[in-house]
Amino acid sequence: MFDGGDEVRYVAERAAQTFLHENALNTAAFPSLGAIQSELCAWTADLLHGPEGTAGFVTSGGTESILCAVEAARERAHVERGVHEPEIVLATSAHAAFHKAAHLFGLRPRVVDVTVDWTPDLDAMADAVNDQTALVVASAPQYPQGVVDPVEDIAQMAVDVGASCHVDACMGAFVLPFAAMEEPDMWAAPPWDLAVEGVTSISADIHKLGYAPKGVSVLLHRSKALRRYQTFDFDGWLGGRYVTPNLQGTRSGLPMAAAWAVVRFLGTDGYRQLVRRTISAADQIRTGVRAVDGLTVPSGCRHHLLSITADPCTDHPLDPFSVGDAMAARGWHHDRQGPPDGLHLTVSAGNAPVVKRWLSDLAEAVDDVRSSSGTGTAPVNPATVAYSTLE
After folding, report:
1. What is the domain count for the chain?
2. pLDDT tens for each residue of 244-273
3. What is the pTM of this model?
4. I need a labelling partner for 217 at 20 to 30 A (CA). Which of 38, 107, 263, 264 fits?
5. Crossing angle of helices 355-370/320-328, nearest 10°?
């Protein structure tokens, strides 16, 4: 949940109610939704330094944006380079949705490890890129540790073989630009968006740090020519020509309209205030966790995503899952991930008022863990939980 405050919620709810019944499948039938989609894409393209001609579509979320980007890269590789056995090159830190896309669309994943700073092993990635590569993936930031990949280096690898390069900025697109405006010396990241030559597409979730309701994301392509590879166009149906840019057919206009209203309401100044509050809260958490003997936050994360792990430099490391259990007993939920075993935090502006209470409960939880023995519960895959529940 990403809470932008009472006024943001009110604006989103009013827009959602107004567009409750509209269908974004056919923007010719609902021209207001066509205008909303165009304005959202144009605003996001400007934010992410898209060159003239940048074009995109609104999707239901980060996973659909990633799926569409992978499918478009596969189509481009086939049409422009005659690639029939496409591959996707990505690091172990890249979002799992890329593997889902590879599975669905028949691409071979070539996965490389990360280095000690949690960024992709560039030498291994360069070795993996070849004439069958359809897509090379970068993250800004990657989800597990919150580190921004070296996008310029990764994009150049794609350029060298004529492949596409997608930047997964679902978590960062509505944070990194405003963070650089607020504190350029402390919070700016190396070039990561469409300003980087070789980046052909980028995804940006408005329903995360854009503070719109679920589910709405923007997928941008460097040009309309590249965007065409995302579109499915079928003219062999008795019902007429069927054209759709998304995996969905019928899709609600509600999230799109709510996102448009929130973006228009907040604007650059509103987002800057929310981002300052967000990263300041994340900085408090990082400082507080690193002050606990036995726990640490891996270095390299300077924004809103962070992981809490055992500190390897202490004689008394703590099991983060045990700490997570103790925090859960106090009402706090943390996703669990690994390796290394860790508790994941995505900090947003709505968390700022409770950081002091969270740190106080963390201190109590650590005391509980130190006075007991054993290890905490392992990471749980939500999909497995859902499947088991259905069984």
Report:
1. 2
2. 999 999 999 999 999 999 999 999 999 999
3. 0.93
4. 107
5. 120
